[in-house]
Amino acid sequence: MRAVIVAAAVAFLISLFGTPVAIRVFTALKAGQPIRSIGLASNVGKKGTPTMGGVAFIVATVFAYVAGHIALTTLPERQIAQEGPTMTALVLLGLFVFCGVVGFIDDFLKVRKRNSDGLSAKGKLLGQALVGAGFGIAALYTASTNGETVASEHISFIRDISWLDVGKVGSVIVFVFVITAMSNGVNLTDGLDGLATGVSVLVLGAYALIGYWQYRHWCGDTAYATANDYCYQVRDPLEIAMIAAAAAAACVGFLWWNTSPARIFMGDVGALSLGGLIGGLAVATRTTLLSIIIGGLFVIITVTWVIQIVSFRTTGRRVFRMVPLHHHFELAGWSEVNIVVRFWIVSGVCVAIGLGLFYSDFLAVVG
């Protein structure tokens, strides 16, 4: 627990005090977010607000992981996976950073062109797929000394589903899909001040709790596994908890400056990185299908966006006034702050249901 607290504290402080530096830097570089003229109240006064703020919480999380890993060296030897970074940390932080790189390229092109056209949709998907495939292969084909890999060859819900064995190749494909879907889900959600940041805090916080719970009931802890009939077959759960807690705390520090009226936007660099990390956490904790519930708001916004696109292209009619979904409610007369807070509540309910299912499964197994 000490390492998790240290990582979270360091991430929060770096993000809280580092984000104003990012605001000054990106403002000086004239890296203002291009705003589309679509008649939304939320767009009024936002022109010129610096973007690419996701760089702040990415840097904060990476430095916090280093601090937390140093704190691990003070723990008993059986609790330390290895002296250097674990493969789990390399996969999770790699997804976080390199999905962010894809987003950074998109943001950079938008700023340079002074419009909202960055990477093409195909270019962005290709970048996400390449990142997902690279780290998916690392997650599936690099085993620890006890043979455990970061990802599994099975589809998982609260743990691996034994009869859903898709093999290594199939698992890499699933890994790519999860990373791509979740990163785009967060990206679609990022449209109002503080919305995606606040929801990400809730989801990442949930994964910090899941990771730590798995660590306390871990098959890799021989003392616990010997004395108990049930344990979680995952790799490096303490590092999972540490990274999730650090990212959640970094987002809290960033939210101080990103909440309405936002002084800085996370940009695609922030949205794609958060989605990549959340997808990686889902796979690493063996809760791939459960992430649909935990990240329920991301899923709702993505599904409604797909419904709108399919409906318009097939019938010429719109189901919603505008997508993503938060803009539908803006056009219905809701204020930006009301939408953000209510969407946070919806996300909190989804997270609570997901955690409840996770814990109820444990109670059902241990009796």
TrEMBL record:
Gene Ontology CC annotations of this record: plasma membrane
Protein name: Phospho-N-acetylmuramoyl-pentapeptide-transferase
Role played: Catalyzes the initial step of the lipid cycle reactions in the biosynthesis of the cell wall peptidoglycan: transfers peptidoglycan precursor phospho-MurNAc-pentapeptide from UDP-MurNAc-pentapeptide onto the lipid carrier undecaprenyl phosphate, yielding undecaprenyl-pyrophosphoryl-MurNAc-pentapeptide, known as lipid I.
Pathway: Cell wall biogenesis; peptidoglycan biosynthesis
Binding site for Mg(2+): N187, D268
Taxonomy, superkingdom: Bacteria
Membrane-spanning parts: 6-29, 50-72, 84-105, 125-143, 163-182, 194-215, 240-257, 264-283, 289-312, 339-359
Catalytic activity as recorded in UniProt: UDP-N-acetyl-alpha-D-muramoyl-L-alanyl-gamma-D-glutamyl-meso-2,6-diaminopimeloyl-D-alanyl-D-alanine + di-trans,octa-cis-undecaprenyl phosphate = di-trans,octa-cis-undecaprenyl diphospho-N-acetyl-alpha-D-muramoyl-L-alanyl-D-glutamyl-meso-2,6-diaminopimeloyl-D-alanyl-D-alanine + UMP
HAMAP family found in the cross-reference section: MraY
Compartment(s): Cell membrane; Membrane
Keywords linked to the UniProt accession: Cell cycle, Cell division, Cell membrane, Cell shape, Cell wall biogenesis/degradation, Magnesium, Membrane, Metal-binding, Peptidoglycan synthesis, Transferase, Transmembrane, Transmembrane helix
GO biological process: cell division; cell wall organization; peptidoglycan biosynthetic process; regulation of cell shape
Family from the record: Belongs to the glycosyltransferase 4 family. MraY subfamily.
Entry EC no(s): 2.7.8.13
One matching Pfam family: Glycos_transf_4
GO molecular function: metal ion binding; phospho-N-acetylmuramoyl-pentapeptide-transferase activity
Cofactor(s) in the UniProt record: Mg(2+)
Membrane topology: Multi-pass membrane protein
